[in-house]
Amino acid sequence: MEKLENVTYLNHPLIQHKISILRSKDTGTNEFRQLVAEIAMLEGFEALNDLPLENVEVETPIEKCLTPMISGRKLAIVPILRAGLGMVEGILSLVPSAKIGHIGLYRDEVTFEPQEYYCKLPKPIEERTIVVCDPMLATGGSAVDAITMIKKHGGKNIKFMCIIAAPEGVNRLHEAHPDVQIYIGHLDRCLNEHAYICPGLGDAGDRIFGTK
Ligand code: PRP
Ligand code: URA
């Protein structure tokens, strides 16, 4: 696949190793959930490496000093329901003060197009760095719609984080929202006739919540 601006593949060996365990059909719900959270934390570590810093005064036991702390715009984490919920805990472990929004979308089983059922975002959304998360970027329809909704509410500085992506989804998301920074754990081969990612990991929502 051609290299696209604003698209980052997170090739860290720990991320790759954990994704391989996620893929296995023998990985149960408990371990699956834990791995999704760990991968989200490792991805978040990379995706947030441009958070702005400012020097603040701190008094150590020795003396006063100016020392860098995260400044300015605060973070909002926005999971796409349901599966995105599994990534929240991992990102929150890095930035515990982040606010959390929710966007509810499900894919129509016939058209594969996303259907919206919920949207609640922290205010003022326009002043926050927004991390949209969903483990799977398949056709890209859900991510494109979620980000369109966030922009309609005023969101500007948006990052999208997923664990596994299909080339179709990456291209569609990048085309619709070229300003959004996209972070991907692993780029898979293609989509099948049911718009599932191959080899993928199956239905992420069902595997996180044990609904199948
Ligand atoms: C899955 C997944 C994404 C979407 C990706 O959700 O979590 O949101 O599919 O597919 P797309 O890129 O083709 O839009 P699903 O619709 O199965 O809902 P769920 O999380 O509630 O199970
Ligand atoms: N949603 C999933 O959960 N898995 C896929 O492979 C595609 C969409």
Task: Give structural notes.
The structure is a single chain. The protein is of the alpha/beta class and 212 residues long. It is 31% helix and 31% strand. The protein has helices spanning 13-23, 29-47, 85-92, 141-152, 167-176, 204-209, and strands at 7-9, 53-59, 64-70, 75-81, 99-100, 102-107, 114-120, 129-133, 136-137, 157-165, 181-187, 190-191, 197-198. Strand 12 (190-191) and strand 13 form a beta hairpin. Helix 2 (29-47) packs across helix 3. The chain is globular and about 65 Å long. Bound molecules: 1-O-pyrophosphono-5-O-phosphono-alpha-D-ribofuranose and uracil. 1-O-pyrophosphono-5-O-phosphono-alpha-D-ribofuranose (PRP) binds at residues 80-83, 105-107, 112, 114, 134, 136-143, 169, 195, 203-205. Uracil is lined by residues 83, 136, 138, 196-197, 200, 203-205.
How would you classify the helix and strand content by structural class? alpha/beta
Task: Compute the number of strand runs.
Answer: 13
Mean pLDDT: 96
Unique bound compounds: 1-O-pyrophosphono-5-O-phosphono-alpha-D-ribofuranose, uracil
The poorly predicted ranges are none
What is the tally of helical segments?
Answer: 6
Secondary structure: helix percent:
25-40%
Distance between the termini: 33 Å
Helix-strand pattern, N to C?
EHHEEEHEEEEEHEHEEEH
Rg, please?
18 Å
The major sheet is characterized as: 9 strands, mixed
Specify the overall morphology. Answer: globular
- Beta fraction: 25-35%
